[in-house]
Structures
1.
Amino acid sequence: MNDNFKFNSKLEKNSKLCKRRGVADIISTMLLMGLTVTGATTLTYFVNDSFVTGNLSTVSSLNTATKSVQLLAYDTRDSTTLLQLSNLDNELDQKLCGVSCTVDFSEKIPSNGGSEFIMIKIKNTGINSIFLENIQLNNVLHTWDSQTSGATLNTLQDLSSGGNYPNDGKFSILSISSIVQSVNNEIQSGKTVNLLIKLGPGDQDISLNKGIRVLLNIGSIDPVEFLIESGNAR
């Protein structure tokens, strides 16, 4: 009788242990599933966030040069007031007009038939100043326009009538919330600037919703490289 009682007690203990192990396995599985879902959600957030902010860097983002420059925003629309800068307008012609609007080399504003503008906002996140030697759009070179040095931006008139903005195929640099163009091509450490690029005779007309490869030559071995989309504002 006593032996039977001991035997039954062992069976009862083993049964409880099996139940506990079963519950532990279920809890472990649920925890693993939770971690997997959390990890996937976090990864999705960061991937989507990079697209929302317009920081669409290409594979060269692994380069040290690209890590020192952050793309904050860009505006390539057929619209008025690019990146909230008043009187900086493109024509509503369903394209970013380049070569077809520079046939007479008149350096006109878009509303008078001239080539159109692209605006890119970047930040120098490095510890040293950078000097933006040139900008390539789809492999077409655009140099800094020295005639804009220290000049107040004026896109209400053509250059021949007193306006002041980059010549066709060139760019200028503006501080945030300022219409005074930089005196040189230096971008100091920690500074955020707008790059105003005017398309020129070397630029093919760019249809809306097309990718634009942007290379910023800051004097390093590798250029800073980004991919933006025409017709969009970030």
2.
Amino acid sequence: MLEVKNIVKYYGKHKAVDHLSFSVDAGEIFGLLGENGAGKTTTFRIIMGLLDATSGEVMLDGKPIDYSMTDHIGFVTEERSLLTKLTVKEQIIYYGILKGMDEDTIMVELEKWLKRFDIPDYMDRKIKELSKGNQQKIQFISAVIHHPKLLILDEPFSGLDPINVKMLKDAIYELQQEGCAIIFSSHQMEYIENFCQKLIILVKGKPVVDGYLKDIKKAYRKKTVLLRGEDLPFEKIEKIPGVISIKPIRDEYELKITDEQVAPKIFAAIKNSNVTKFDVTEPTLNEIFIEKVGNVHEK
């Protein structure tokens, strides 16, 4: 279990992280979100023991994270951190030995992962000869070769096509089932919604959203009604208090409403029309992110 307890980090007078606390249990995938410069990278570096927090503490399995604990952490960075002149085998052996593994064990694990990612013949290929997507696979292997207790994934799907995204997703779910605690960060909100039950959104180092995704969505009052039909009375619908906007999307209409109490009023207005779809949906995480981050900037 990872515990981040009230960490603060200053760079000079600039506060990069502002009293941040969260926990990630074994087998849990936790989302850490924020725009560029929000404090995510600083937080990751503190968790990995690369930076000292100005105050607060980080614990893994009840112990402060120091060099004796970092062997239990894996990190997939947004930027490539591979040594491009090395072969895949040389690269993974190098990283595995740094994590305290012996070479025989590394080779067994590497062969397994290369086969899993459908690149079994890449063992002796140089990193610089690989496509961006296959480099990302090797980056992932380097982060998990030692079976970490904690895995940090920062934009892990960068450069991957849909088939390879699925491969990596399946690998992440398998690590979760094995009990690995995972922190997931991405600007692609659909990935966060797919993976994470709990999340935090940071703005200028400070949490502005914190909790379970289902509770966050429930607390966010704005909803969407999706309508499809003929002879829909839009002039009447527009006059209903709480209807924010009406937008055509392909063969249906998207109505933004202030809260779900407005939905029955819309249904009453269209009950005599030929309606083939009436669906009240929760807001997307993307909508919540844009509003919460935007509201802080407007203050």
